[in-house]
Amino acid sequence: MSEGAAKKEERRKFQAIKGTRDILPPETALWNRVEQTAHEVFATFGFGEIRVPILQMTDLFARSIGAETDVVAKEMYTFVDEMQGLPDPANFAISPDDYVDAVQEAVKAGEIQVTNSNLRALAGLKSQLDMFHERGSNQSTEEAQLKFRIAASQIQFGDSISLEPEATASVCRAYIENNMQQLPQPVKLYCIGPMFRRERPQKGRYRQLYQIDAEVLGGTDAPAIDAEVIEMVMTFFERLGLEGVQLHINSIGDKNCRPKYVELLRAELRKVKDKLGPDSQRRIETNPQRVLDSKVKEEQAIIENLPRIGDHLCDECAENYKAVKRELDMRGVKYRENWRLVRGLDYYMRTTFEITAKGLGSQNAVCGGGRYDGLVELLGGPPTKGSGFAIGEDRLILSLLETGHSPLATRHSPLLYIAWMGEKAYTTAIRAAKNLRNAGFRVELPPVEQKFGKALGQADKLGARFALILGDNEVTSGQWTLKTLADGSQAKFTEPDLLEHLKKQL
Ligand code: HAM
């Protein structure tokens, strides 16, 4: 590297990784308000907060969300959690024999997963070892070393882990691992946190996104559970003043009726294949229901004529869907039925729903959810019912901002700015700041002395309502000057009187 290039590299500016972003004050105040409201509203429905690790086994998601879904096949941040301690075969600080022994020990100790690919790689490594021995020496030639290293590199030293792309699978894993089936059922849990999906970033679509997720696990699969979960998210949105909220519901059937419907759909799609675009053509074979999701203009009329799941539900699913709608009506929850609603994750059955809101453009789903009986069992737990949703917090905030919910309304600007001058005044200012903050007031104490004019200008810029002026006179007399910045009026107070006065101002 040339000296110039090295200097440039040194001065390199770091940027947030594509699809991730900083969320700054005052917007964070709005995030806090949203999360606080979630804590409050969800608590009134009997939900408790759970915090799950962001790192989970890759297989957890492959098994639950589905290995063929976009989320798992294309969008996960996955890496091998390298085991520590096994020497690198590249530097041959260890003989090939010892190396193979160490690998076998690690397999026995469960430090290397016994997967088919690892077993194949181990066999390859052993055959390389045999080749060394056939030459009658453990002294390897460069070529043999290289082959050995290649064989060694095929072994996955550690678990494949992923940053979680959604929370349902992790919450189900936690339910099983913590024996929550022994608690009174159902168990109602919610969590708030970052998720990761390597999607193409655009407005409302990020690679680090935040979800507010709620799950009801265990007990009955009564339609009232689905309805109450939906009622809860609608109550939450209402409390926040979210505008243009539209609930779309559907039933996608269960393992008795859905496969037959999917085959019927596929057969019908094959008949009109030539009229469809390349994406839909491909999906006829891979996942025909995804064709219903198509936004391609020319395909809309064709899709409208396709068989609809509602006409092909088995009796139990049809009855269940009716009951869910009845339960929603009883709760005064307005919905729109949308037979084309297809969720992008494999674990759903029966009730599915999405909620859209204003100001979001093409990424307008602010919440998605549904029923997923069978998922806990699929993950190795007992047969367990499940129903829940996840809100895209980024989109929720975006919609609130776009419809005029200024974060400034919740902004934490100081109530009071302490304009102090002189050493004695500084000591008093520190004490005053401490007492006022303890009483719950937001106080800004400048760290260096400023002329009063400059201090008042600064107070103004920060949006403070009052400036407390502390100079030699005030300290000596015990009469502090409080200036109201909006009208410039001033009044004198003793310290206790000031506290009382400020309390009345709130
Ligand atoms: P999901 O539909 O994949 O469902 O995601 C739920 C919500 O997360 C979406 O409606 C959207 O608001 C938000 N979201 C998803 N991807 C992004 C992204 N890249 N950028 C910004 N926001 C995004 C689930 O995740 C299920 N686990 C929901 C669930 C819970 N079902 C049952 N329980």
Q: Brief description of this entry?
A:
The chain is an alpha+beta fold and 506 residues long. Helix content is 42%, strand content 17%.
Task: Give the topology, please.
Layout: H1 3-10, H2 27-44, E1 48-49, E2 55-57, H3 58-66, H4 70-74, E3 78-82, H5 96-108, H6 116-134, H7 142-153, E4 158-163, H8 168-177, E5 187-196, E6 208-217, H9 223-240, E7 246-251, H10 258-271, H11 278-286, H12 300-304, H13 315-330, E8 336-337, E9 349-356, E10 365-371, H14 375-378, E11 386-392, H15 393-402, E12 416-420, H16 423-438, E13 443-444, H17 452-461, E14 466-470, H18 472-477, E15 480-484, E16 490-493, H19 495-505
Parallel strand pairs: 1-5, 7-8, 12-13, 12-14
Antiparallel strand pairs: 2-4, 3-4, 5-6, 6-11, 7-9, 9-10, 10-11, 14-15, 15-16
Helix pairs in contact: 2-9, 5-6, 6-7, 9-13
This protein binds histidyl-adenosine monophosphate.
Histidyl-adenosine monophosphate is lined by residues 166-168, 197, 199, 204-206, 209, 211, 213, 215, 344-345, 365-370, 372, 388-390, 392, 394-395.
Task: Give a verbal description of the structure.
The protein has 506 residues and is of the alpha+beta class. It contains 19 helices and 16 strands. The strands form three sheets. Strands 1-5-6-11-10-9-7-8 form an eight-stranded mixed beta sheet, sandwiched between helices. The protein has a five-stranded mixed beta sheet with strand order 13-12-14-15-16, sandwiched between helices. Strand 15 (480-484) and strand 16 form a beta hairpin. Helix 2 (27-44) runs antiparallel to helix 9 (223-240), helix 5 packs antiparallel against helix 6 and helix 6 (116-134) runs antiparallel to helix 7. The chain binds histidyl-adenosine monophosphate. Residues 166-168, 197, 199, 204-206, 209, 211, 213, 215, 344-345, 365-370, 372, 388-390, 392, 394-395 line the site of histidyl-adenosine monophosphate.
